[in-house]
Amino acid sequence: MGFPRIVVNAKLYAEATGPGARRLLDACATQPGTALAPPLTELANLARYGRSVPLFAQHVDGLAAGVGTGFVTAAMAKQAGAMGTLLNHAEHKLKPADLKASLASAQAAGLWTLLCADSLAETRKLAKFKPTAIAIEPPELIGGNVSVTSADPAIVADAVAAVRDMAPDTLVLCGAGVKTGRDVKAARKLGAHGVLLASGVVKARDPLAALRDLASGL
Ligand code: G3P
């Protein structure tokens, strides 16, 4: 299975728990190439529910099994059903040492690693780690209605170029404000492999219709 082109980060939205989580997974299942990063507490339930949608943990820590109250290991996330993990999201920034440890654990567990960068400078720093993918997401656009692809297309194109130079095997996604197929199309035109988004699907009145529209831009 190739790395997804649409990654839906369900954050801690209330719409993404219980039956809402299954509804989101059902919607993702209709669009091949779509992955879901549910709240961590929903991961195992959704994996059992099936639907062959790649699941991402929203975060993993760089700890081994043993002591570590309140943390989650990469191996445990994988065991719960994750195929990949987000790391360093703007809402869950990691100190460099913690990021390195989380990344190493995720890589050792065989998880796809999707690192979030809030700037071009951070994209360059993260490219050195050669993760599976980097998502460029300007924090000020997160949760808004203006897509990064319209508000700041240059940051997407520049991130793509920087990563191509530094880590040619690392894919680039873009996110923040992405809502429509037009935004996805623009992302692809700018050289991105795909998009990382949240509210455009999770908060949509009809997540399935939102995903259909997004996928039309691929
Ligand atoms: O991880 C995706 C996210 O930060 C973007 O959020 O709501 O702007 O799609 P949103």
Please outline what is shown here:
The chain is of the alpha/beta class and about 220 residues long. The protein contains ten helices and eight strands.
Task: Describe this protein's structure.
The structure is a single chain. With 218 residues, the protein is of the alpha/beta class. The protein is built from 10 helices and 8 strands. Strands 2-1-8-7-6-5-4-3 form an 8-stranded parallel sheet. Strand 5 (112-117), helix 5 and strand 6 (133-136) form a beta-alpha-beta unit. Helix 1 runs parallel beside helix 10 (207-215) and helix 5 (120-127) runs parallel beside helix 7. It is globular and about 45 Å long. The two termini are 17 Å apart. The model has no long low-confidence stretch (mean pLDDT 97). The site of SN-glycerol-3-phosphate has 14 residues, from strand 8 and helix 9.
